[in-house]
Write a structure and sequence with these properties.
Blueprint lengths: L15 H16 L5 E8 L2 E12 L4 E2 L5 E3 L4 H14 L20 E6 L4 E5 L6 H6 L13 H8 L12 H9 L16 H13 L3 H13 L20 E3 L6 E3 L1 H4 L16 E3 H12 L3 E2 L2 E2 L3 H7 L10 H4 L12 E3 L4 E3 L14 E4 L5 E5 L4 E6 L10 H11 L4
Antiparallel strand pairs: 1-2, 1-16, 2-3, 4-9, 5-6, 7-8, 10-11, 12-13, 13-14, 14-15, 15-16
Helix pairs in contact: 1-12, 2-6
Length: 410
């Protein structure tokens, strides 16, 4: 399955010549070696107005990006896991204010880092338990080892939790280990990008009685027709998977990164609800269209429309933005004027970013420079796929917004 243009752009407010600037601009990224290849899809009112591929999915093998190329989407998994959790919430299986220790007892007596070093940290009891909404909004006090900006990050790495957990640890084991580590801050008092969505995935498992992969397949992927979304690629799909790259520190050229990229060919022990999926553009297009349509696509309803609206409002304490609440360990999103909902960053005011967008637009991306956003005001979705780590290497996301919104002329 692929995503082809379904309407002339000028019929719904886009200038085709201006949309072509997307290809010209990001084509230069490939031509000068910064990226190996990419794929982009832009829609409005459910119609595809621009769909393009450029460059190579595997530069060393000379294989071009095709419409059905598979991409590691990393943290674009988070919105999928968040939707799964909210499907259970809609069934009354839990409340957002419930303490997660009700299902994950290892989190019953968490402690919070106060001072000290990785060798001798001093912690205090949490004054507020971790609740479900804390996981969805990254306000639980959890972190990522790869951040490398705090003592708590160092404690994660010392315990074997960097970008991935130890190779033999499953989701349940990872959550048990993470619960023994101190929190970065008191739950509900700050925003810190973290393993919270992995813990949320474990919550989905315990509440539903299914493994996370089974739940997502049964309740989201099959109903939506997302036939190319998996946790790893088998022999049949291997040739469709784009290679992973990282910038050469001396030249800035994209260099193959098989040390990490090879993991996509192995069935994972750890089902990362925060970053484990591999997907095609067509599949993620269907996921974003479901959200744009208020939880329904082609007669299949995953969420109620009010639930989607609720998820995509700012849930940060006091209505504050990320600029006010972020702990500073994550720098791949503009913080000022951006809040956070239940699984998505949410634009409150586009002016601080100096990039056009609509109030209420929601989005996220992945560490290999993939990105998406959904604009319910203009009824736009935009998707961009490539495989370059980290995503902070180039300003791809603001540039894509710049190019898309400047092509909207109605």
């Amino acid at each position: 399955m692929s995503v082809a243009r379904s309407i002339d752009p000028d019929q719904i407010g886009f200038d085709p010549a201006r949309l072509a600037r997307i290809d010209e601009h990001f084509g230069r990224y490939v031509d000068d070696g910064r990226l190996a290849g990419w794929q982009a899809v832009v829609t409005r009112r459910g119609e595809v107005v621009h769909s393009a591929t450029y460059g190579l999915r595997d530069r060393e093998a000379g294989l071009p990006v095709e419409p059905d190329t598979l991409w590691r989407i990393y943290s674009m998994t988070k919105p999928v896991t968040s939707v799964a959790a909210m499907m259970l919430w809609e069934e009354g299986r839990f409340e957002l204010t419930d303490e997660i220790s009700r299902w994950l007892p290892e989190f019953a007596d968490v402690r919070v880092y106060a001072k000290g070093s990785t060798l001798k940290p001093y912690t205090v009891p949490a004054v507020e338990p971790i609740r479900v909404w804390h996981l969805l909004t990254h306000t639980a006090g959890l972190t990522y080892g790869f951040m490398q900006t705090s003592v708590v990050d160092g404690l994660y790495r010392a315990a074997g939790y960097d970008l991935y957990p130890p190779a033999d640890v499953d989701l349940a084991g990872a959550c048990a280990a993470i619960a023994r580590l101190p929190l970065l801050f008191q739950p509900g008092t700050a925003w810190g990008y973290s393993v919270a969505t992995d813990v949320l995935g474990r919550l989905v498992e315990v509440v539903s009685g299914q493994s996370l992969d089974a739940f997502l397949a049964d309740r989201i992927f099959r109903p939506l027709g997302m036939t190319d979304t998996h946790w790893y690629v088998d022999d049949e799909a291997t040739s469709r998977l784009a290679a992973l790259y990282a910038p050469d520190p001396r030249t800035g050229q994209a260099m193959r990164y098989d040390q990490l990229g090879a993991l996509a060919h192995q069935k994972p022990t750890f089902l990362s609800g925060g970053g484990g999926l591999i997907c095609s553009a067509a599949d993620y297009h269907r996921f974003t269209q479901m959200l744009l349509r208020g939880g329904e696509l082609d007669g299949v309803r995953l969420l109620g429309s009010r639930t989607v609206r609720f998820m995509t409002r700012n849930h940060l304490p006091g209505g504050q933005d990320l600029g006010a609440l972020s702990t500073g360990g994550f720098a791949e999103s503009i913080f000022d004027g951006v809040g956070f909902g239940l699984g998505f960053a949410v634009v409150q005011d586009p002016i601080p970013s100096r990039v056009p967008s609509s109030v209420g637009e929601y989005y996220w991306g992945g560490v290999a420079s993939t990105a998406f956003w959904i604009d319910p005001v203009e009824e736009i979705t935009a998707l961009f796929f490539t495989q370059l780590m980290p995503s902070s290497t180039h300003p791809i996301r603001p540039q894509l917004r710049q190019l898309v919104y400047s092509a909207l002329v109605d």
